[in-house]
What we know:
Blueprint: E1 3-7, H1 11-23, E2 29-31, E3 51-55, H2 63-71, E4 75-80, E5 93-97, H3 105-112, H4 118-127, H5 131-138, H6 145-161, H7 174-181, H8 187-193, H9 196-211, E6 218-220, E7 223-228, H10 232-248, E8 253-259, E9 265-270, H11 279-283, E10 289-291, E11 295-301, H12 306-316
Helix pairs in contact: 1-3, 1-4, 3-4, 4-5, 4-6, 6-9, 6-10, 9-10
Amino acid sequence: MADYDVFNGDADGICALHQLRLAEPRDASLITGVKRDIELVVQVSAAPGDRVTVLDVSLDRNRQALLDVLAAGAQVLYVDHHFAGEIPAAPNLEAVIDTDAEVCTALLVNRRLQGRHLPWAVTAAFGDNLHDSAARAAAPLDLAPQQLVLLEELGTYINYNGYGSCIEDLFFHPADLYRRIRPYADPFAFIAEDAAWGVLRDGFADDMAHAQAAQPERTGAASALYILPDAPWARRVSGVFANHLARDHPSRAHALLTARPDGGFVVSVRAPLAERRGAAALCRQFQTGGGREAAAGINHLPEAELERFAEAFHRTYG
């Protein structure tokens, strides 16, 4: 019997898995990648009796691979908050899917574990730009304000590490970052003891300094579209900068287009925090698009599609 842990390489995926494995230790093969590498289930070579856990990647984008794993006789736990489409009916599938705009995968895992490792769920919610949800979830912890700030920073930095067009853009491979976090039931101990905290903090500060000099290319009544250059800093910071803009302008939608080395753009869309809707439907109009109501993206928007995307974006949030 083999075990597989399949998870998004961002804060939500890493913290969701960390909570589960603190509660249910398991020596599993890790399958992950950059944040936008979401068609991960295809990497599972399943056999009867295998146990497969899938966290924070769209079921809809992994549908055929999931069906293959189920047909092979593996037991699957699938927890996610992205658009799923029709959920397969199979006795060997436990699907925990909730697309509510105020939840993330780690909060769903926290619900399943009845709060046993709540600080890591709070960390993930902050990383997923769900600041109100994170603050509400943190209430039972009775944290000092500075402790809450540290969890917010940790979630932001873990999330930031997942962005890039390839692993080489990242400071840490997400599987390696998870392995560094794995020994720590207490996130504050991780912050105090592991050098990854300082590496990510300093990298984030440097990249955000570049990003904050950017100006929107196009604006609408309630929308702003930015184009960032083909540079490692831009690819790393695109998602967290989009989150930053969303918090600074809660009534405005934001689209960040980062030039790809091979042409076209990677797109990050954030719906207005005041009305978390429309991002997934917008991005699914394009071939490699997907996500959730509040935050979505397109892995490869060809340059020829730029005008169509800009018009659809401003129309959605006009």
